[in-house]
Amino acid sequence: MQSNDFSKGKVWQNILAQSIPLALAQFIQLLYNVVDRIYIGHLPGADSMALTGIGLAFPLTTLVAAFTFLFGTGGTPLFSIARGARQEERAEKILGNTFTLLLSTSIALFLLCYFLRRPVLYLFGASDDSYVYADAYLKIYLLGTPFSMLATGLNGFINAQGFPRIGMLTTLLGAVWNLILDPLFIFGLHMGVGGAALATVLSQFVSCIWVLKFLTGKKALLCVKKEYLRIDRALAGEITALGLPGFIMQGTNCLVQVVCNAALKVYGGDLYVGIMTVINSAREILSLPVLGVTNGAQPVLGYNYGAKEYEKVRQGIRFTAISGIVYTLLAWLFVILCPHLLLSVFTEEPAMIQAGTGALRLYFFGYFFMAFQFTGQSAFTALGYSSHAIFFSLLRKAVIVVPLTLLLPRLGTGVNGVFLAEPVSNAVGGVACFMTMYFVLYRKLRSLQKESQD
User: Fold this and answer.
1) I need a surface site. Which of 24, 68, 72, 346 has the fewest CB within 10 A?
2) Inter-helix orientation angle 270-306/415-437, to 10°
3) Tens-place pLDDT, residues 398-441
4) pLDDT tens digits along 286-305
5) What does the alpha-carbon distance between residue 154 and residue 202 come to, in Å, rounded to a whole number?
6) Cα–Cα distances in Å, from 125 out to 53, 189, 400?
């Protein structure tokens, strides 16, 4: 069908057709992640400590996401390949093994993080005051680790069977329940940060039940079956190898969060750890449209590359870059002009808004450079250069951000150095990623186009 033929019609229209529903799905997921912080930021009498506590828990929640990516994004493509090759038994074996890997790892992570949460939180930069909130949130949130990993990690298998609406409902159900339960538990039952965690756990439980009911029911083309739950070492190796890029990217996010929180605790105290929580949340919101476009461009670029429509690939890369730069420039302007508006979504505390205004502007300085990073990594991923995508993700986060976060405050910039590390890494890493993409891919596409015309 022409609607699925990305070589037909205008490239930018095909990219937007993919990007808009993807951005909507990401928005739903964003609500799931951010709504807790919004409610907690307005918790009466908690000052900035409640948000600080949530920020200290981020690295552990990111670690859970990393292992979910390891098995979820590793198993789903193998499942799709086996299904396309009519190897249904192998596909169900992949599904069963992924289920077992997710469940067993989630239990291990829960036990490890739950019983070591006190020393780990202090290692991450907790003080005696902020630990109270971090512990109250984390000890309940961790109970949902199996639900979270199974719901997120197995949802891709629903989409891979051609049921994208069912897959989208997985996230939608969790987000809606979280929106309903958060104010009830936090304010109605006066449970505070513990109520936010409980709302998240129950929402994850609902999503998990939804996924498992479908994948064990009659509507699924291929199901989770008992006989395929036993781990096949060779198959498990294939799953983890393919999911390693996603794991590395999430793992470096965890590393950056740990280093930033620890440095902010030393140079700025609990207030600035809370401010970083708000800034991370603002970044997630502002990055959503450009991520939607770059992720939506990937199937269009990949399809046209496979169809040897190399000029259309170049057009797609140009559209992705230009739209990304224009949007991130506008987002940067918004941060410069309206920092108070953005901060007030998450907190009403005057001290946090006052200190956060300067930090927010520093962190987002030169934000348009992120468009270069997104465009380069999107093109690399779409055309099968996954090692390049991993390299530049590691370059920006592990090689640039982490050392600068540790070094800049020591050079006299103090707490501002922690926030300056991000724009420096965006500029250096973003330009390096884009220029490499230009010379390795973009110019090569012109030569391939000429060869195909000869």
Assistant:
1) 24
2) 10
3) 899 999 999 999 998 999 999 999 999 999 999 999 999 999 99
4) 998 888 888 778 778 877 88
5) 18
6) 10, 30, 21
